[in-house]
Every structure is written in C-alpha cells, then in structure tokens.
Amino acid sequence: MTSLSDQSHLRPPWWRNERILKVLLQVAFVVAVLLVFGILAQNLLASMRRLGISLGFRFLGNSANFGITEGLIPYDPSESYLKALAVGAVNTLWLSAVSIVLATAMGFVLGMARLSSNWLARQLATVITEIFRNVPVLLIVIFWYQGVILTLPGVRNSLSIGGLVFINQRGVKLPGLDPSGWLVPALAIVIAAGWGIRKLLLARRPELGSRQRNLWVAAGVALLAVACWVLFPEPPVRLDVPVLERFNFRGGIQLSAEFTAMMLGLVTYTGCYIAEVVRGSFLAVPRGQWEAARAVGLSELQTFRLVIVPQALRIMIPSLNTQYLTLIKNSSLAIAVGFSDLFNISSTIINQSGRSVEMFAILMATYLTFNLVVSYGMNWLNARVKLVER
Amino acid sequence: MNGLAPLAGALALSMGLQSLPAWAQLGPLTDRIKARGELICGVNNQLPGFGNLDDQGKYVGFDIDICRAVAAALFGDPDKVRYVYLTAANRQSAIQSGEVDMISRNTTWTLTRDREWAVTFGPTTYYDGQGFMVRKSLGVEKLEDLNGATICVIAGTTTELNLADTFRARGIAFTPVTFDGDDSSFNAYEEGRCDAITSDQSALISRRASLASPDDHVILPEVISKEPLGPLVPHGDESFSDIMNWTVYALFYAEEKGITSANVDEFLKSEDPDIRRFLGQEGNLGELLGLKPDWVVNVIKAVGNYGEIFNRHLTPLGVPRGLNQPYTKGGIQYAPPFR
C-alpha cells in the first residue's frame, strides 16, 4: 500500500473500499453466528437452572440395567451406559457397512440395466428405481419389516435351504464357520504353496501368459487345501449349523429380523439412488470416447473396462459419497423396527437417565465422526482417480 | 420458547404478582395456562381404556379423564384441553421443554424420574404391576419357563429395566426386542416375532382384548414389580402441582363420600359441614388453590368420581379394581382431608 500513499486522494474512502468491506461483512457474520449460539446456550442453561438440572457426563459410568436385543460385542445389563452406547455404535457401523456394500452393488447392476439394450432389463430396472426412489425411506423399512419379514413362517416352520440356512420371521440363520487349532498351519501351508508355485512357473516356464499361470497356482492351492482337510486330525474349519431349540435356533450366525429389515430398507432405497448416479455418470462420458476406443481396435468389453469405467468412476465418486452419508444418517430410523442401533439405544438411555442434552451432544458428535471418516475416505479415493492436469 | 421467555416470566413474577395477597400467589405455569385458556396435556393414544382415540377421533380413557378433571377445576369446562400424543420415549423432553403442562399417560413414579425429569408426580391414580403375556400353546406357566425366549418390550419404560433386573437375578436367559410404541410392540408380539410380551398388567389386559383371538393368549399370574401410575407436572410451580394433586384427591374423596355426577346436585343441599366445605358452599378451599369456590362441583359434573371413571373405562375391559378400591372398601386409594 505504501506505493499508493502519495495518491491517497484517488482511493475511495474506507467505507467504500471493497477489501475492507469484505472483511467487515465476514466479521459481522461471525458475530451474528456467535450471538445466535450464545442466545441458544443462554436459553438452555437458564431453562436447566429453572428446572434444577445440572450438566455433566459422569452418569455414563452408571449401570445401564436394560437388555439389548443384539450386538457384535458382548454386553450384559449390569454394564455401564457407555458400554451400551458402544454396542449401539458398533451396530450402526455394522449395519451401515453391510448396507453400503450391498447398495453399491445393487446400484451398479440397476444402473447398468437401465443403460442396457435389452428392453425387459431396462423397463424392469426403471420401474424398481422409480418405486423405491419416490417412497419415504421410513415407509420402505416398515414395509420390509411388517409387510415381508413378520409375515414369514414362524420359528417352528422355518423355510430351510438345504438344512443349512433357515429363514423365518425372527430373521435369517446362516451356518457359521467354527475355526479349530489347525486353521493357522493349514493357511500357512496353502499360502506358501501358492507363492512357491508362482515363483517356480516364472523361473521355468516364462512363456506362459498370466492367465495360464494363475490357473496353475489355483489348481495347486485347491489340491493342497483338500489334502489338509483330509490329512489333519480335525478339519481346520467346521460348519456350525443352527439347531432348533425350544424357543429359537442356537448356533450359526444370526441376522435378526430387525437388522434384515433395516438393511433391506437402506439397500433398496439408497441402491436406487446409486443406480441413478451410475447411469448419469456413464451417460456423462463423452460419446467420442466410445468411438475413439473402437477406432484403435479395442473390443466392446475392453472399451468398457479400460476407457469408460475409469472415466465414469471419476464423475461418480462425489455423488456416491453423498449417498453413503445419507445412508448412515438414515440408519438412525432403526428405532421404527426396534433394531438396537446407536440412536435407539441412546433414546433408551435418555429415558432411563433423563440426560437428554448430554446424550444428544454425544449422538451428534458420533454421527458427525462417522460421516467425516467416510467423507475423508471418499475424498482420498477421489484424489486418487482424479484427472491429472498437465 | 425463545431466549427472552425466562426473563419475561421473571419480570411478570416480580411486578404483576406483588399486588396479590400471599395466599393466592400463583406460579408462572398456572398463570400461563389461565392466560392461554386451555390445558395442554401429554397423553397416550395407543392404550384402550387409559388413552386412545374413539371412532370420532376424540381422545377417551381413564388418563384422559384426569386431564379433563384438571381442566374442569381450572376453567369449569372439561373440554378446554389440547392433547399431545407422547410415546414412552419422548415424555421427558416434552415435559422439560414446556411443550405440555402436564402428563397423564400411564407413567410410573420412580425416584430417578422424580429427580432427573425435574417433575412433581401427583397422587397415584392406578396401582399397577408388571406382568407377562404368552401364547397358551407354548405351555408356559412361570417365568423360569421363558428361559431362552424372545420378549417384546416398550422402549423407555420401567418395564424394560425390571425385565432385565428380574431375569438377571433369577438367571433366566432372554432376548429383548425393544419397540417405541404400544402398537408396534403388541403388533410384533401378535405376528409371532416374540414368544412373550411384558408390560403393566393393566396394559396387557387392555391390549389382550383387542388381539385377534384373545383366548389364545394368557397373562401369567406372576407380577414382578410395583408400578404406581399417575399424572405429573414440571418442577417450578407448586401452585399448579397443588391444583393437580387436589383435583385427583377430590375424585377419591367424592367416591369415599358417595358423591357422583348424578347426585352432586342433591349433595349441594347437604347440611354436613365437611361436604359443604368440599363443594365450596362454605370456607375458602377453592380460593386457596386460586380456583372458583365450586371447582369440585365442576370436576364431578364433568367426569364423575374416581369410581365412575374406573367403571366407565376399565371395568368393561375386565380390569379388576383390586388395590384401586377406596380404603373404606379394602383398597389403598385414600384422600387427605379437605379442610
């Protein structure tokens, strides 16, 4: 600014100086925001004082005293509120993770189907996406729970698939895998063998293509795995098949009715949105790319794999990120069907402890953390596939 | 509620009420309700007999009549109530935030709620206890038979805690499935999602009557808890909690004295000083509460006495009076003296 000091009479007065004005506006905005928050906090504290309620997080150490339907980590009603919250958080993560994977898969299939030249596939995909995209997600979840799962046969007359998988209104029972002490040595042998065979082939038969080499490796590994199964005193992994007892099945992996309904709801709803994202991204790749790929003699499949998908992915990722974040937030609807997610367990804690302010603070912070982590991951992916400008 | 409401309240308190004599000092909440001209009452709409909607979409039930009685005491008109449906889970925030003036929604009085919700519970209007309902076909006779069972329960209730406590103490394994409303919980039970459902005995009796085939279900004789149900109001205005308390006591007292909605006019001619004081013919009981002298007459004409309310809503469902008889008939309902 010193160079302009001798021409100061040419400069507009400070209240018309754009740079100063911009700064002032920003200051005013920050002050306004702080003022609003200050009034809100003041109001909260005043109301709490009036009711004689104190703030504090010490209550989280108190014993929860309520049961939880299901959880991936062991829990007993005598444990603390904090532990109950952890069960809920893990359930939310588990539900979201499974749903995100399945919704993405469904979205890709539906999105491709809508672009396919097959009339039936195209129409079917269109109908499915239009239905699920335009119905509120809460209704979809309740439809899956009350309309589909609860109307399945009861526990005693479960639908059985080969005596291994049982489907009834309590949920889905899958056979679990019960590892024995022999699993580790078996894995070690198999992995070492696979690596050894590959080294040998590279050294002795360099003329083989990568596909043939992989076939040889797979065959060797499969043979050894079968050998381990037969020769070891007990099999490295045993199937843990569910058995019907007085009230319910025991053993195996249980996907409860509530989890299944929630998952189906989230997958069908978000999957259809992802289908649209996928379709739009493919359409956004310029037609010239297809023509150029054909011109250099790539096959239809190669064109798709090497030219179109990489460019479509680039367009897709930011929108997919949004869909994933929405899915995680929608998972808090689990209370409608009684799945023990983070929000459901938190509302129970709010009721039993009366600490609504603290619990909502925890809830907001937790969901924010989940979503920031997902966002960060997607942004990293986005940076990886971004067009490198030269 | 905006940020200035507490301030305005404090100002009104410091200026407007100075002129009143000390015995008629009304609190901020009573003033707000009177200025508004209606009582906002948090209720249930999924529990036939206690609180639900009739064919015309009007709220009816035992708990609803408690709201109507308080409105009759305040305004002389039982219809000056706005009802707000509350789930078990959002009761606390509704009363704390001032969304409702009062809750009358089969709510159990516990020490934790009394302190943590920052509320004042009124007299117990229904002495209840937690029970279990199961399908007859399962052949369950006692709680131990439920080992390994899945049990439907409503979120945010004392029921949820008692279930965990009792089963833990007796070493019975169970899986709870928690829903946030009576409808979803009983619906899941009826569909077969749970082997048993647990709730207050009165709720089980009430909901069993509305199941598709009530005779297929049996309520186990075992009662595992005390569930004193009653109305409640927020802390901070004793004048309003007094109005709630004495309105409920008036219902008990009227039954003790044999005063009903049909014969209350006869009693107005009574020479008994006790009755005359109670009905506002003499003395200043109404004035002490900041109500009209004949407030009790309005209450009784609007909803009848406690026994009438019980017979109108609960007896048809087959709910026994049991402990909820007046103390003169072997129950434990007892009103302090009106003098």
Report on the biggest sheet of chain B.
6 strands, mixed
Shape of chain B: globular
Low-confidence segments of chain A: none
Number of strands of chain B: 14
Mean pLDDT rating of chain A: 87
Radius of gyration of chain B: 21 Å
Taking the alpha carbons of the first and last residues of chain B, their distance comes to 38 Å
* Largest interface by Cβ-Cβ < 8 Å: A-B, 47 and 47 residues
What does the largest sheet of chain A look like?
Answer: 4 strands, antiparallel
Which structural category do the helix and sheet elements of chain A fall into? alpha+beta
The total count of helices of chain A amounts to 11
How would you describe what is shown here?
The complex is a heterodimer of chains A (390) and B (339). Chain A is an alpha+beta fold. Chain A is built from 11 helices and 8 strands. In chain A, a hairpin with a 4-residue loop joins strand 6 and strand 7 (249-250). With 339 residues, chain B is of the alpha/beta class. Chain B has helices spanning 5-15, 28-36, 62-75, 91-96, 111-116, 158-170, 182-191, 201-208, 238-257, 264-267, 273-278, 285-289, 295-303, 306-313, and strands at 39-43, 46-47, 51-53, 59-60, 81-85, 102-108, 119-121, 126-128, 130-135, 149-154, 174-179, 196-200, 217-219, 227-234. In chain B, the strands form 3 sheets. In chain B, strands 1, 5, 6, 7, 8 and 14 form a 6-stranded mixed β-sheet that branches. In chain B, strands 11-10-12-9-13 form a 5-stranded mixed β-sheet, sandwiched between helices. In chain B, strand 10, helix 6 (158-170) and strand 11 (174-179) form a beta-alpha-beta unit. In chain B, helix 3 (62-75) packs across helix 9 (238-257) and helix 3 (62-75) runs antiparallel to helix 13 (295-303). The model of chain B is unreliable at 5-23 (pLDDT under 50). The chains are: A alpha+beta (390), B alpha/beta (339).
